[in-house]
Amino acid sequence: MTNEQIRQEIAEVIPFRYMERFELLWTMIIPKYERLTADQIKQQQEMENEREMFWSVLEDVTCLVLGIPSQALYSPTRKREIVTARQIIFFLIRPCYLLSLKNVGDRYKKDHATILHGINQASAQVEWDRQYRANVERICYLLNEIGYAKPMIFFNKFVDHIEYKKELARKKKSKIK
Q: Could you say which of 41, 56, 78, 138 has the lowest number of CB atoms within 10 Å?
C-alpha cells in the first residue's frame, strides 16, 4: 500500500472540519518526495536530466568559444581565462534553472560566495566590456541554435535592462546640467 493510498483511507474517516489539520500533519510526517505522484516524480527526473544535459552543453560551448579545454573548469586554477569561463557559466546557469548558489558551487567545488562573486563579475563585464559581451552573446546564440533558448532570452532581457539603466542615467545627468 502506497503512502497516497494510506492518506486516502485516513482522509475518508476524518471529519471535514479536521481536514486542514490533517493535511498539515501529513505534510510534516511524510517527506516531500514520498508525497509526489509517479507522474510528478517522472517530470522532476526529466527536468533534472534536462538540466544536467544543458549544463554539459553550456560548459562545452563556453570552452569552445573561449578556446580552453572543458576539464580545466574543474581544476582549482585561477588563470584568468578559466575563471572567466566559470563566471560566464555561473552567470547563465543560475537564472535559467533557478539553482541555488550552493548547488552551482557543489559542481565546481566552490563555495556560494565564489559563485555570487562570479555572477557579479560577469554582470559587470557584460555591462562594460564589449568583447566580453560579444563572447557571452555568441555562447547564447550557439546554445539557441542547439535548442536551448533560455540563455538567449535571459541575456536579451539583461542587456535591455542595462540599456534602460544607462538611458535613465543619461536623462538624470541631462536634468542636472
A: 78
> Residue 11 class from Cβ within 10 Å (0-12 exposed, 13-18 middle, 19+ buried)?
middle
* Residue corresponding to grid cell 538611458: 167
C-alpha cell at 5: 493510498
Domain-wise residue ranges, the chain: 3-35, 43-162
Q: For the whole model, what pTM was predicted?
A: 0.72
Q: How far apart are CA 59 and CA 113, in angstroms?
A: 21
Indicate whether 75 pLDDT > 80: yes
Distance CA 112, CA 102 (A): 5
With beta carbons less than 8 A apart as the criterion, state whether 120 and 111 touch: no
CATH code of 43-162, in short, is: 1.10.1750.10
- Grid cell, residue 136, equals 557571452
Least confident of 34-43, 56-65, 68-77, 82-91: 34-43
